[in-house]
């Protein structure tokens, strides 16, 4: 196919309640949607970058710039573009994986819609529904945390993930265990808030029988994660540290991780995400699908990915209502603690143009007439 145009739509969507992690609190999601116009039809993608570079170095303004000023020209110039070749066309550009993933998804969606194939089928999904976990932010108090967790369990979520940071770790985990019992599948996510000096403190979480501890140390700390893993019985699961299939392979070889959180945006796309899955599966390392507060578009793709056979743990694949009163597609709903894998062509969900219009902040059209040529100097 030929790529004919890219529309970048920036939306601001209010969250149902503020979401706090160790790097800060957000009360709305600013998201860039990509609408790719191709010779075979329209496709949609979602960029999972945040407004500030606090989860990783990427952020929305940079994603928009790198797509418009650097990615667009070679993509428009490619004669036989497909979802599978976007990665090769963009390979000369370092990093910017979330921006690359968003473009790849839009092209892939257009291709698959034209071919009448679902993303799940294309990726190799083996399930028609996936178990749903929920990521619970840092709360102002323990009673508020217990109320939130109790509500999610009542809705049927099959796994709870608590965000932790120094000063909000042992006590919230203890309180959730005491209130809801040892049977609840429970894990924690520190988003890099600790250092190896905290190993003794983090070992106090071992008594709570957690499924895993996600990204306690810095992104670059593979060796330190391996040292920490040797001091804990709680399995370490890397998120921020894994930006490629090679990173996953290295981290596993080092003993830095025994479970992997897969986010397509973080690793540069759903095809690289599948390669991470394949490497982990071959190594006997369980994986689960992470989330970045996706709208129904990105959520549809995540659910398709999470239906691959190596995804043996519930992911952060929660219902639309976990974050949004109003989604921009038909909402994903919990059915017996699971989300249904879309079966329609491409992402298998349709964009609600009215909802998009109501959240729209800006819109930018890039096509072969206004995309800057190669910029190398
Ligand atoms: O570390 O998994 C994370 C949200 C934003 C940035 C990083 C993370 C998260 C979450 C939310 O935990 C996952 C979700 O979308 O439900
Ligand atoms: Mg995480």
What does this protein look like?
By secondary structure, the chain is an alpha/beta fold. 36% of the residues lie in helices and 21% in strands. The strands form three sheets. A seven-stranded parallel β-sheet has the order 5-6-7-8-9-10-11. Strands 3-2-1-13 form a four-stranded antiparallel β-sheet. Strands 4-12 form a two-stranded antiparallel ribbon. Strand 7, helix 7 (199-203) and strand 8 (213-214) form a beta-alpha-beta unit. The structure holds 2-succinylbenzoate and magnesium ion (MG). Residues 189, 191, 214-215, 239, 261, 290 line the site of magnesium ion. 2-succinylbenzoate (OSB) is lined by residues 55, 135, 189, 191, 239, 290-293, 316, 318. This is o-succinylbenzoate synthase.
CATH topology of the largest domain: TIM Barrel
Query: Portion of residues in helices?
Result: 25-40%
Bound molecules: 2-succinylbenzoate, magnesium ion
Approximate shape: globular
> Per DSSP, what share of the residues sits in E-state strands of 2 or more residues?
15-25%
* Count of β-strands: 13
Q: So how many helices?
A: 13
CATH architecture label of the largest domain: Alpha-Beta Barrel
CATH class term of the largest domain: Alpha Beta
SSE arrangement, N to C:
EEEHHHHEEHEHEHEHEHEHHEHEHE
In CATH, the homologous superfamily of the largest domain goes by the name: Enolase-like C-terminal domain
Spatial separation of the terminal alpha carbons: 30 Å
């Amino acid at each position: 196919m030929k790529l004919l145009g890219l529309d970048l739509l920036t939306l601001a969507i209010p969250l149902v309640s503020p979401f706090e992690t160790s790097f800060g609190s957000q009360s709305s999601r600013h998201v860039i949607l990509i609408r790719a116009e191709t010779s075979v039809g329209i496709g949609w993608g979602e960029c999972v970058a945040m407004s500030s570079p606090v989860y990783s170095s990427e952020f929305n303004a940079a994603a928009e710039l790198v797509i418009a000023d650097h990615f667009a020209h070679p993509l428009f110039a490619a004669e036989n573009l497909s979802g599978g070749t976007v990665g090769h066309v963009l390979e000369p550009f370092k990093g910017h994986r979330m921006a690359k993933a968003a473009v790849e998804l839009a092209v892939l969606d257009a291709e698959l819609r034209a071919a009448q194939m679902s993303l799940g089928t294309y990726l190799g999904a083996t399930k028609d529904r996936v178990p749903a976990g929920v990521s619970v932010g840092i709360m102002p108090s323990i009673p508020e945390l217990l109320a939130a967790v109790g509500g999610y369990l009542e809705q049927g979520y099959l796994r709870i993930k608590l965000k932790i940071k120094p000063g909000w770790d042992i006590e919230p985990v203890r309180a959730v265990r005491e209130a809801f019992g040892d049977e609840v599948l429970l894990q924690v996510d520190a988003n890099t808030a600790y250092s190896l000096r905290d190993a003794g403190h983090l070992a106090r979480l071992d008594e709570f029988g957690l499924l895993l501890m996600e990204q306690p140390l810095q992104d670059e700390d593979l060796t330190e994660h391996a040292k920490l893993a040797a001091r804990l019985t709680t399995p370490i699961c890397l998120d921020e540290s894994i930006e490629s299939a090679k990173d996953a392979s290295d981290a596993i070889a080092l003993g830095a991780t025994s479970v992997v959180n897969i986010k397509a945006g973080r690793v540069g796309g759903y095809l690289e995400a599948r390669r991470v899955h394949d490497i982990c599966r071959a190594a006997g390392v369980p994986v689960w699908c992470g989330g970045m507060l996706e709208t129904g578009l990105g959520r549809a793709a995540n659910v398709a990915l999470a239906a691959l056979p190596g995804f043996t743990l519930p992911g952060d694949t929660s219902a639309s209502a976990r974050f949004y009163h109003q989604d921009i597609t038909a909402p994903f709903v919990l059915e017996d603690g699971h989300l249904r894998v879309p079966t329609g062509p491409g992402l298998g969900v349709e964009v609600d143009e009215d909802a998009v219009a109501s959240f729209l902040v800006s819109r930018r059209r890039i096509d072969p007439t206004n995309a800057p040529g190669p910029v190398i100097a």
